[in-house]
Design a protein that fits this description.
By secondary structure, the protein is an alpha/beta fold. Helices cover about 35% and strands about 25% of the residues. Keywords: Methyltransferase, Transferase.
Length: about 250
């Protein structure tokens, strides 16, 4: 399911990044750092970070347009591929990651590939972030707009995300569930760009022929300071794949 090709540039510029503490937690459970697979990589935001730690990173996405915006690194191999039908050999990866994407996947078929391509005692990391909050009344206005947009499109998919991925099927030996936060200072243009990157906003534009963010940004800009603090809750589920007898 490709819901992001049309807004690839916006996605690359305005989507939140993942905290260093989250990455450190993941790395602390990985036994070797030879190969990682970042599935649903989008613009390679997470793959770029993994490349600093792993010898080789394979990053896949179904959107060729998204991959065009990925940061090139000599040890990252970007591949157009679905999550459920990767081209990889069995037992390749020390770490498999999915950031802000697993709610779009066919869980059963993707998980078969996670088990098949993971090394013995490999680590599987599922990462996501929730709704932004601010220090002002803008939080409720933004949340109401979010509900309005996603009520009509992709409701089931977003429910997984809104519940912090706690309700996704997860038939693995779970290591733990962790919560973090990502904080930014955004002007109103940053907020607008982030909203326009939403899959539901793009679907609304496609069906109705106009940008639904125009009205909400006009309303919010009346009280939005030149720069305002926004926060995203970030969550992580970790599992051990193909565990050995001593794990």
């Amino acid at each position: 399911m490709d819901n992001f090709s049309k807004q690839s540039a916006l996605y690359a510029r305005y989507r939140p990044h993942y905290p260093k503490e989250l990455l450190s937690e993941i790395y602390g459970h990985v036994k070797e750092r030879k190969r990682a697979w970042d599935c649903g990589t989008g613009n390679g935001q997470l793959a770029e970070k993994l490349a600093l730690e792993f010898e080789n990173v394979h990053a896949t996405d179904i959107s060729e347009e998204q991959l065009k915006y990925a940061v090139p690194e000599s040890n990252i191999n970007y591949i157009k591929s679905s999550a459920e039908e990767p081209i990889f050999e069995s037992g390749m990866f020390d770490l498999i990651t999915v950031a802000q994407a697993i709610h779009w996947f066919d869980f059963e078929n993707f998980y078969k590939e996670v088990v098949r391509t993971s090394k013995k005692d490999g680590v599987f990391a599922v990462i996501g972030y929730g709704r932004l909050t601010t220090d002002s009344n803008a939080t409720k206005t933004i949340s109401d707009f979010y509900d309005k947009m996603f009520r009509s499109h992709f409701t089931e998919n977003r429910e997984y995300l809104d519940k912090g991925y706690k309700t996704i099927p997860f038939p693995f030996l779970e290591i733990g569930y962790y919560e973090f936060a990502a904080t930014y200072n955004w002007n109103i243009k940053d907020l607008s760009g982030y909203m326009q990157s939403w899959s539901a906003v793009q679907k609304f534009r496609e069906i109705n022929g106009f940008d639904p963010t125009d009205g909400i940004i006009t309303e919010l800009s009346k009280d939005w300071k030149s720069s305002q603090t926004v926060r995203f809750p970030v969550f992580l589920r970790l599992a051990r794949i193909n565990p050995g007898a001593d794990t």
